[in-house]
Amino acid sequence: MALPILYSLRNCPYAMRARLALYASGQQVLLRDIVLSNKPAEMLIVSPKGTVPVLVTADKQVIDESLSIMKWAFSQTDPDDYLNKAHTSALVEMLSVIALFDNEFKGHLEKYRCSKRYHEPSLLEDRQQCERYLADLESRLSQHQYLMSDKPSLTDLALMPFIRQFARVERQWYLQSPYPNLRQWLNGYLQSKMFSKVMAQYPMWLDSKEDVVFGAE
Ligand SMILES: N[C@@H](CCC(=O)N[C@@H](CS)C(=O)NCC(=O)O)C(=O)O
């Protein structure tokens, strides 16, 4: 059976979390790395909204939201139980934390990144807005090793690329910030084999037209 196709962008946090879930679930896809300034017509035909990631499954279903791709991956195979299937309310709880970050934290993070880039006087205030959400993660990680429990979950993978972005805005401040558990959690991912696989660099698909097999080894 043909492998699914993933249109992806190496440094996009949404594409990153889709690749994390595909990798963690053990799914294989054909990866097509793109640049936003030159989106392939093949991608725009299946998903005219033009955002990455986009997954086209073997039966030609188009999934063009990163969280839906993550859920699709774990619905196919979930050897490490990222969806915590035995607990009926677990997925609802995971999705509610993810929604808070996608709908609220992400906006504050974008403001914070802009303030830093353009030396805005609102930098401190923008960082503090982000910190309200980080404090919750720190508290979770002081109680267990991962965000929802002692096991990694969908939430960890969905949030990680955005926390990584936050950590890179004011590196020196972050390294001494009052979030030691969060730093440890993030470092664990940054140093993992999974992350190095997910961040591997491939030729742009439009240049090479060569599909790269990504995922389960
Ligand atoms: N809600 C979408 C957001 C994806 C998104 O915004 N991706 C950015 C790149 S990080 C994008 O493709 N932007 C399109 C553009 O700038 O043309 C998802 O979760 O997949």
Automatic annotation (TrEMBL):
GO MF entry, a single one: transferase activity
Pfam families referenced in this protein's UniProt entry, alphabetically: GST_C_2 (PF13410), GST_N_3 (PF13417)
Domain GST N-terminal: 2-81
Superkingdom field: Bacteria
Signal sequence extent: none
Name of this protein: Glutathione S-transferase
Transferase as UniProt keyword: yes
Domain GST C-terminal: 87-217
GO CC, alphabetical: cytoplasm
Keyword annotations of the record: Transferase
InterPro entries noted in UniProt: Glutathione-S-Trfase_C-like, Glutathione-S-Trfase_C_sf, Glutathione_S-Trfase, Glutathione_S-Trfase_N, GST_Omega/HSP26, Thioredoxin-like_sf
